[in-house]
Amino acid sequence: MQITRLFLVRHALVEPSARAVVYGSMDVALCELALQQEAASYRWLAARLPERARWVVTPLSRTRATAAAIFAAGYAPASLEVEPDLAEQHLGEWQGLSHERFAELIRHPAHPFWPHGAEEKPPGGESFAEVVERVSAVLHRLVQETPGQDIVIVAHGGSIRAAIAQAMQLTPHQALIFSIKNLSLTRLERHGADWRVAAVNEEPFTLPAQA
């Protein structure tokens, strides 16, 4: 049985001005200070990710910049394929609003661990349930195109949760329970017709110095 392995990395922390608003699929820059402070995380990813993998990013520059930082930390540079349907959830007319104003506009109960529910569809945008549908279709295609090989995907919290929903056959609401931290690694495997979840939100860990 061929096993196709997917290594999903959430992009690095974005700049403070972007974090002050609900940015969704807006193209915002990475935080320069965090890029310096997280040097060890990039080195860990450069060593942890498989060699000679197929690399996929989204049209948003924060995923390409994160991939470039991983290459600079020691991973042999690879060509980057851009996949639009792995982008973050598009929040339509509500993108760019403050978190407080966004909370005033939602029409369904917020998720316990997310600013909005899975069925919330902002005007001119999409719901998280729709994100799950488009991400699922991309994962199936990538696995079909690259059987038995490794794929590194630098994406977003929303699209990685959507990938987990596909692998575990979760509802969109259930998928929003997962914490996906910046620069964390989620590993999914396709074994024939079945998905296996190898790790979620994997992060570098350093043992404390002995007393």
TrEMBL record:
SUPFAM superfamilies for this protein: Phosphoglycerate mutase-like
Pfam families xrefs: His_Phos_1
CDD domains reported for this sequence: HP_PGM_like
Alphabetical list of Gene3D superfamilies matching this protein: Phosphoglycerate mutase-like
Entries under PANTHER family matching the protein: BROAD-SPECIFICITY PHOSPHATASE YOR283W-RELATED, HISTIDINE PHOSPHATASE FAMILY PROTEIN-RELATED
UniProt-recorded name of the protein: Histidine phosphatase family protein
